[in-house]
Amino acid sequence: MKFPSMAEADGRTLGDEEVAAAERVIRSGMLNSVWGTEARALEREIAGVYGSRHAIACSSGTAALHLAVVAAAPDPGDEIITTPITDFGTVAPILAQNAVPVFADVDPSDGNLDPGAVAALIGPRTRAIMAVHLFGAPARAAGLRALADEHGLTLIEDCAQAWLTELPGGRLAGTVGEVGCLSLQQWKHITCGDGGVAITDDEELARRMRLFADKGWDRAAGRSHAAFGLNYRMTELQAAVARAQLAKLPGVVAARRRTAARLLDALKGVPGVRLPRPDGHAWWLFPLVCPDGDAPELAAHLAAAGIPAHAGYLAEPLNRAPVWDAAIYGASRYPLDGYEPNPCPQAERLVERTLLVIDWNERYTTRHVETIAREIVKFRARP
Ligand SMILES: *Cc1c(COP(=O)(O)O)cnc(C)c1O
Fold first, then answer.
1. Euclidean distance between CA atoms 210 and 377, whole angstroms
2. Cα atoms in the Cβ-side hemisphere of radius 13 Å centred on 338
3. How many CA atoms lie within 13 A of 55 on its CB side?
4. Lesser CB count within 10 Å: N end or C end of the chain?
5. Does position 96 have pLDDT exceeding 80, yes or no?
6. Taking all residues of the chain, what is their mean pLDDT, rounded to a whole number?
7. Is the pTM of this model over 0.90?
8. Partners of 217 in the β-ladder
9. Residue 173: phi, psi to the nearest 5?
10. Rounded to the nearest whole angstrom, what is the distance from the C-alpha of residue 108 to the centroid of ligand 1?
């Protein structure tokens, strides 16, 4: 049976509304968001959904994370604690600001940062914590918030996989940190191809992020450059499509939650699989933990049955990535001379042996769920 994929029209919610949005922008003659209206409207709408005071649209989730690191203002060589199980877009902005990524280990039940491991790594040069709500499951935001407050650190929430993820108590993921970062890349819940948004309640951080996204150009001050910045602007085409997608987001997440709940039900009591906690989950992917270490074999079985499932999520956790053995800026590694990423045994075991991710999609039906459940049960029942 065919599984709808986020790489194809039948697994996306792109339709007449997005076509009309793109046409509206093209016919207006203004494709750039400095002088257009769409990106500013998207920012207001996202700020409304999240109840945040500011939203800054930009060119990608990685750009949004870079803005967040800029807002945290590390000095060169300062440390930012983050997770080894994430997209490289979480880590690249740390390097871009000449800060040092410090990898903390994760909770083996879901791959999210373990606040105890984070606490043990906080030192005199720690400036920020970057948490990821992995696969759409809420990270331990309360524990990380408490650590950030205790030590005067900036908490950045990477919500690229976690649109409308809810934290215990009902707050949306992205509203507990100083900055929350969203992605509109092709493989996320909603998309405009590439795009990102940073949200914050803090006036000064919002100002820094806006300046950095627009070449440090304070538009109210004439052709005058107030700070170092890049061009991370979202285009009007991206913003118009993203607005149409944003209107569909609640339906996308609700549909994913419905079918994920069915799969959880169907897998209850199956031996050798640890099920994800559904609370607040936005189901970017459906992750399973195989505590006995046979996730690669289960993934191969599912893939052979036509189910889009993968073991490990990454080739290696980011603390083991080849990039740490290479020069980073020209021939230089500054400020990473002598740098050795921390071992993260839980993350390493997850990626190598125990983590399985099944692609998830708002277009899955009960039949898709039944097929997945049947194949997992069949694999577990084999002699
Ligand atoms: C996709 C993703 C990013 C990067 O977003 P882009 O829009 O692709 O730049 C960062 N972090 C996580 C957790 C992601 O899934």
1. 51
2. 1
3. 25
4. C
5. yes
6. 97
7. yes
8. 225
9. -55, 135
10. 22
- The set of residues, in sequence order, having a beta carbon less than 8 Å from that of 59 and lying 6+ positions away, is 194, 195, 196, 232, 233, 234, 238
Give the pLDDT confidence score for residue 382 in this predicted structure: 82
Instruction: For CATH 3.90.1150.10, list the domain ranges present in the chain.
Output: 249-380
215 is annotated as an active-site residue:
no
Structure confidence at residue 22 as a pLDDT band (50, 70, 90) = very high
Q: Where in the chain is the domain with CATH 3.40.640.10?
A: 9-246
Q: pLDDT tens digit string along 103-124?
A: 999 999 999 999 999 999 999 9
Q: E strand or H helix at 371, and its extent?
A: helix 366-381
Contact 118, 104 (CB under 8 A): yes
Among the ranges given (35-44, 219-228, 232-241), the one the predictor scored with the smallest mean pLDDT: 219-228
Q: Which residue out of 66, 158, 245, 360 has the highest number of ligand 1 atoms within 8 Å of its CB and is therefore the one to mutate?
A: 158
Nearest residue (by CA) to ligand 1, atom 6, is: 61
Q: What angle do CA 180, 185, 186 make, to 5 degrees?
A: 145
In angstroms, the CA 64 to CA 57 distance is 8
Q: Answer for the pair 56, 197: CB distance below 8 angstroms, yes or no.
A: yes
Nearest to 133 by CA among 96, 102, 97, 107: 107
Ligand 1: residues with CB < 6 A are 60-62, 86-87, 89-90, 132, 158, 160-161, 183, 185, 194, 196
- Tell me what pLDDT residue 295 has: 98
What is the per-residue pLDDT for 226?
A: 86
Q: Which two tokens stand for residue 47?
A: 């700020």
Q: Which of 2, 188, 248, 378 is catalytic?
A: 188
Q: What architecture is the 249-380 domain classified under in CATH?
A: Alpha-Beta Complex (3.90)
Q: How many CB atoms lie within 10 A of CB 97?
A: 17
Quick: pLDDT tens for 227-274.
Answer: 999 999 999 999 999 999 999 999 999 999 999 999 999 999 999 999
> What is the CATH code of the structural domain delimited by 9-246?
3.40.640.10
Q: By three-state DSSP, how is residue 81 classified? A: strand
Contact yes or no for 95/101 (Cβ under 8 A): yes
Angle between the N-to-C axes of helices 16-28 and 236-267, in degrees from 0 to 180, rounded to the nearest 10 = 160
Q: Which residues are CB-neighbours of 377 under 8 A, at least 6 positions away?
A: 267, 270
Total number of residues shown for the chain = 383
